Amino acid sequence: MTRHLTAAIAVLGVATLIGLDSLETPPNPYKAPKLLALGSGTAPAGGFCGALPDRPQGN
Amino acid sequence: MTTLSDTSEIAAAPILRRGTLVLAALALVAAVALLVGGRYGLLLAVGLGFGIVLEGLRFGFAGPWRAMILRRDPAGMWAQLLAIALVTLVALPLISASSGELTGAQAPVGFAMILGAFVFGAAMQVVLGCGSGTLVNAGSGNAVSLVALPFFAIGSFAGAYHLIWWTDLGALPVIIFSGWQGVAITLAGLALVAFILWKLASPENRRLPRRLTVAAVLIAGLALLNLIVAGQPWGVVYGLGLWVAKAATAAGADLSGSAFWSAPASADRIGQSVLTDYTSLTNIGIIVGAWFVANWRNGGLSQSLPKLPAVAWLAAIGAGFLLGYSSRLAFGCNVGAFFSGISTGSLHGWVWFAAAFVGSIYGIRLRTLFQLEPKP
After folding, report:
1. Does B113 have pLDDT greater than 50?
2. Which residue of B has its CA nearest to A47?
3. I want to staple B319 with a disulfide (CB 3.0 to 4.6 A). Which of A11, A48, B126, B300 is the partner?
């Protein structure tokens, strides 16, 4: 067996994750934010590694 | 006998394969941009860029730390410091001037944070893959990283689940170096570390290869793009934990017992597509980008899988879980805390660096103990 197998499993895993997630929580492009956060006029709201639950802005 | 026609076909095969890879990457980004949103497509492209540069130019974190500890070779660490310095020069003034649209990787220094960084440093040397490295290695077919990755995600989910209990053990307020003063302090700190590495390095290793210089500049550019597009710096571990939180919720699990996962912001993200989560998008991009590079290279995936003893595979599972769990306590991994923390002025990035480096010294010994080193 070579790395062809393990690399394929990794990429198929990602594809499965996206596929199953899209069935459960389908994306809505009409709710998409502006292309860039810089200049958007809105505070960042993404999750981040340093996030605490009482700090919903992510950091 | 090989005919001219056969030779042409052999020569055309890599071109066809590589052309297909480029088209696939463009199609992937376009699909996400159209079906989810332009910002998300752009973030996926940034993630693909990270994966391509990290794998293509062999830029990493765990490996260079190991090279410094074992061989007193500082080249990889110098490249990391250069990339961090370049991001600092732009990111800190930009965050100060952005009137709240951009934020840094800011977190408090605390007991659990230091312990988490120490454990992460040790665990990343056991599997020889950090936050970004485990993703890159899995995408390029490294079996140990592929085994560690799902447990990394489970650990990240569990670490976030218990995060408040750990932070209640004691933490300082968030300390940030901001603006041009922050730039000066951060660059001085990076220069001091670079000088210490130079003093400790073997004389024959006191050079920075061109490949790593190019990689550092590209990684810095992508990290800045991440900040400008997402409004927050490059991170890894939040996204991995979110994948497990979403799976657990879909399976009917009740996360109300966790202050972190039941918080409104977390619950909101669990209810949205994974393709709208910034760290998930760059994580996906890193795995796929590394896979593209491995496929691009002739014979890039033809290496045989390692034959390791059971204890080594068990160590990969345990270390994978600890990578995820500890990085949540530490408010980030080598990317979210070390790279993004320092480059956006957070003191916790520096403390993370010190604690994780000490952990790495022990982790290198554990890697041998768990028989993850190939036998000579």
Report:
1. yes
2. B238
3. B126
The answer to whether B271 and B122 have CB atoms below 8 angstroms apart is no
Q: Collapsing DSSP states into helix, strand and coil, what is residue B171?
A: strand
Work out the average pLDDT over B143-161.
97
In the three-class reduction of DSSP (H, G, I as helix; E, B as strand; rest coil), residue B170 is classed as coil
Residues of chain A where predicted confidence (pLDDT) is lower than 70: 53-59
Number of H helices, E strands in chain A: 1, 0
Nearest-neighbour CA in chain A from B223: distance (Å): 14
Chain A CB contacts of B94 under 8 Å are: 38
| Other Cβ atoms within 10 Å of B251 Cβ, number | 7
Using the beta-carbon criterion (under 8 Å), do B146 and A6 form an inter-chain contact?
yes
Higher-scoring residue by pLDDT: B327, B299: B327
Burial class (CB in 10 A: 0-12, 13-18, 19+), B19: exposed
Q: Test A58 with B232 for CB contact under 8 angstroms.
A: yes
pLDDT in tens, B75-107: 999 999 999 999 999 999 999 999 899 999 999
Of B104, B273, B305, Cβ closest to residue A3: B305
Give the C-alpha separation, B251 to A24, whole Å: 11
Q: How many residues does chain B have?
A: 376
Answer whether B103 sits within 8 Å of A59, measured CB to CB. yes
Residue of B nearest to A14 (CA): B284
Is there a contact between B303 and A2 if contact means CB atoms under 8 Å apart? yes
- Asked if pLDDT for residue B12 goes beyond 90, the answer is no
Alpha-carbon distance B335 to nearest alpha carbon in chain A (angstroms):
9
Q: How would you write A13-37 as a 3-class SS string?
A: HHHHHHHHHHHHCCCCHHHCCCCCC
ipTM given for this complex: 0.91
For residues B162-173, give the mean pLDDT: 92
The residue-averaged pLDDT of B196-216 equals 97
**Which pair of structure tokens corresponds to residue B296?**
């691009």
Query: Encoding tokens for residue B134?
Result: 């485990």
The per-residue pLDDT for range B255-279, each reduced to its tens digit, is 999 999 999 999 999 999 999 999 9
Q: Cα(B247)–Cα(B93) distance, rounded to whole angstroms? A: 39
**Dist. CA B174–CA A37, nearest whole Å:** 23
Asked whether the predicted pLDDT for residue B41 surpasses 70, the reply is yes
CB B116 within 8 A of CB B356: no
